[in-house]
Write a structure and sequence with these properties.
The complex is a heterodimer of chains A (412) and B (231).
Chain A lengths: L3 H14 L1 H39 L3 E6 L7 H5 L7 H10 L3 E10 L4 E3 L7 E5 L3 H4 L4 E4 L4 H5 L4 E4 L1 H8 L8 E4 L2 E9 L8 E2 L2 E2 L6 E5 H7 L11 E6 L5 H15 L6 E4 L1 H44 L1 H9 L4 H38 L7 H27 L3 H6 L2
Parallel strand pairs in A: 4-11, 6-8
Antiparallel strand pairs in A: 1-12, 1-13, 2-4, 2-12, 3-7, 5-8, 6-11, 7-8, 9-10
Chain B lengths: L1 E12 L2 E13 L4 E6 L5 H8 L7 E6 L2 E2 L5 H10 L1 E4 L11 H10 L5 H14 L15 H13 L5 E5 L7 H16 L3 E5 L3 H4 L4 E6 L2 E7 L8
Parallel strand pairs in B: 3-8, 3-9, 6-7, 7-8
Antiparallel strand pairs in B: 1-2, 1-4, 4-5, 9-10
Helix pairs in contact in B: 3-4, 3-5, 4-5, 5-6
The chains are: A alpha+beta (412), B alpha/beta (231).
The structure holds adenosine-5'-diphosphate and magnesium ion.
């Protein structure tokens, strides 16, 4: 076996000799690969963000949210339905035996909120102690709320990173005091900063946890004032055991709540697993469309390579004759041109990858979409390019190999 | 060394058949120095290409060092071209973008010889043809005579059994032609077997055997005593 790098060096030399022509023929391939890389890194970014978002909802959770009721109809509606309440949650736990956790949420209306050092406009949320686990909230300092806080109607709270900054500046907030409306709370924990900037996912509004004050829901319900006829809970989340079909569970839950609310449409269910499914479907459509575009570009690129290689073979007919005359076999000639086609497409692939990352960067900068480096994409593109080089290079290479030595020597 | 019997080559073009070679028989012994002469179109190049295994005959037999060549497949022919035969062309046929050294070393690539060894041998060979100081020059940077020396060095690099040359001086002026012929004479003195095509009597005068051809046939085949060969 001939040292293949000999042929490779020759090929590189050949390409360097015809920079512009090579580059022009490669454009199709460069854009094709660029599109694939950009697409895959946008896709990868979206996927990672989706997973992160789903993580904050909890993949195994079902979220029940109360829908706002118009004030003028409230009295009428309350004759039928009390709105979302703790008994609903009890009933859900009784009806769905496979729950592994639950949390209830209640927003507290705020008129004043400050510490010794600053003011805040954070949302105050009463939650069950299990909430931190279920929503995958990471406590960066201190501790989350506990069953003890709940049972003792403790005036303890966990705050978001932005809230911590508003209230305490750069001081350590743990142990600090916050006055929420008429009550003093002790800060026992601060949440980690999660970076998701999205405000919506698959049609569901997202709330950042950066500017929040979490207090035990028991404390909230007992100590804060609520409007008359206001629903008891804003949300409750239930966590399903591993292997439970979340769509089926959601249906059961929906039927149960509809009965309990006597048909009043004052709640909605969010199923993160279904959202993720939905997201992946859209992502797939996006991928298919982009793949088709990329495929066509690559096909065009491949034809370009075939074209340049045929021109090459024609131009170097004499050289082929010389090589054959001094002992090159047909295989030797074929390999020479195949390696050249391979080198061109590999080079085109590399440029395409660069372009792809550039496009992804630009997309990220202007659209705010997350993009992520996908090593699969790089390996895939290089592989595809190499394959294209070989597939579209084989015909010209065979043509070169089959030239009659004497005819080839006479060429020009 | 070479045994050719009733060798034929016909080109069919539409309904006319050109008998470029029409039943040629002869032998070449080791260390022969043969000139093939004849007017243009008499079949000299056709014969030499067959001897050089660049082409396959339409009939007859060609035995090179005891092996029947006319029925060999393409790969074996390539091997023979690589190892047994050194071919020198009228138009030099060097790779224009490669250095003299790389041109001379080229056949060794197809003999699967390592790069270092290739360069060593090619360097020696260039020295032998008097171009030790031109190794890095490209063909375009050399004179016709120098190019043909490079081509001869390339033909010799694999130590072939026989050297074939098709009008090696055809593109050279008379002074340079003499230099190249001196090179061939030297090769012959060192024991090489040389068969060359020419239509110039002055060139043929260097050889000690002259085969004259006409219309694809051998007319005369005469040997001359070495003393008569011009120096
Ligand atoms: N490839 C070919 N196709 C058709 N005819 C050819 C071909 N090669 C050579 N010939 C013919 O064969 C004859 C001998 O050619 P050639 O061997 O080149 O002659 P020489 O070298 O003696 O001038 C000529 O008539 C030429 O036209
Ligand atoms: Mg001729």
């Amino acid at each position: 076996m001939i040292e293949w790098y000999q042929d490779l060096l020759q090929a590189i030399d050949e390409l360097a000799n015809q920079k512009l022509r090579t580059l022009l023929t490669l454009l199709g391939m460069i854009f094709g690969v660029g599109a694939v890389i950009a697409m895959l890194s946008v896709g990868e970014g979206a996927e990672r963000e989706a997973l992160q978002i789903i993580d904050t909802m909890g993949l195994r959770n079902i979220l029940v949210k109360s829908k706002p009721t118009p004030d003028d109809m409230l009295a009428e509606i309350r004759e039928e339905s009390m709105g979302l309440n703790l008994q609903d949650l009890e009933a859900a736990r009784d009806t769905l035996p496979f729950l592994t956790g639950y949390t209830a949420l209640k927003r507290v209306r705020i008129y004043s909120q400050f510490s010794q050092f600053g003011k805040s406009d954070a949302q105050v949320l009463g939650v069950s102690p299990t909430h931190f686990d279920m929503a995958n909230l990471e406590v960066a300092g201190g501790r989350p709320l506990t069953q003890l806080d709940a049972a003792g109607y403790a005036q303890n709270c966990v705050i978001g990173p932005r809230t911590a900054h508003d209230l305490f500046g750069n001081r350590d907030p743990i142990g600090g005091m916050v006055k929420v409306n008429h009550l003093w709370f002790t800060v026992v924990g601060v949440l980690a900063d999660n970076r998701t900037e999205q405000t919506e996912f698959e049609g569901v509004k997202l709330q950042s946890n950066r500017n929040k004050i979490f207090v035990p829901i028991e404390t909230a319900l007992k100590r804060f004032q609520f409007k008359t006829m206001e629903e008891e809970l804003d949300e409750f989340h239930i966590q399903l055991a591993e292997g439970v079909d979340s769509n089926r569970a959601a249906q059961t839950l929906s039927r149960l709540l509809t009965t309990r609310h006597r048909g009043v449409d004052d709640f909605e269910l969010v199923v993160p697993e279904a959202l993720l499914e939905q997201h992946r479907k859209t992502q797939n459509i996006f991928n298919i469309v982009m793949s088709a575009i990329a495929g066509i570009s690559l096909l065009v690129g491949g034809i370009g390579i075939m074209n340049i290689m045929l021109a090459n073979v024609l131009e170097r007919t004499r050289e082929i004759g010389i090589r054959r005359a001094i002992g090159a076999t047909q295989k030797d000639i074929q390999r020479l041109f195949l390696i050249e086609a391979f080198a061109i497409s590999f080079f085109g692939g590399l440029l395409g990858i660069l372009l792809g990352f550039l496009i992804a960067r630009v997309i990220a900068a202007y659209s705010g979409w997350a993009t992520a480096w996908s090593s699969t994409a790089v390996v895939l593109s290089v592989g595809v390019c190499a394959a294209i080089g070989l597939v579209f290079g084989i015909y010209p290479a065979m043509k070169a190999a089959r030239l009659d030595p004497i005819e080839a020597l006479r060429h020009d | 060394m070479i045994k050719v019997h009733d060798l034929k080559k016909a080109y069919v073009m539409g309904d006319i058949t050109v008998r470029a070679l029409d039943g040629v028989s002869f032998e070449v012994a080791p260390n022969d120095f043969v000139a093939i002469m004849g007017s243009s179109g008499s079949g000299k190049s056709t014969l030499l290409n067959l001897l050089g295994c660049l082409d396959t005959p339409s009939g007859g037999s060609y035995i090179l060092r005891g092996h029947e060549v006319s029925t060999m497949n393409d790969d074996r022919l390539a091997r023979i071209r690589n190892k047994e035969i050194g071919f020198v062309f009228q138009t030099f046929n060097l790779l224009p973008r490669s250095s003299a050294l790389d041109n001379v070393a080229l056949p060794l690539i197809y003999s699967r010889i390592s790069r270092d060894e290739r360069n060593k041998r090619a360097g020696k060979m260039l020295q032998m043809v008097g171009l030790g100081d031109r190794m890095d020059h490209r063909p375009s940077e050399m004179s016709g005579g120098q190019r043909q020396r490079v081509a001869v060095a390339r033909a010799l690099i694999n130590d072939p059994a026989i050297i074939l040359a098709d009008e090696p001086t055809g593109n050279l002026d008379s002074t340079t032609s003499k230099e190249i012929m001196d090179l061939f004479v030297n090769l012959h003195r060192r024991g090489n077997t040389v068969v060359m095509v020419t239509h110039e009597e002055e060139i043929a005068a260097y050889c000690h055997r002259v085969i004259r051809m006409r219309d694809g046939k051998i007319m005369t085949d005469e040997r001359r005593p070495i003393e008569e060969v011009s120096a």
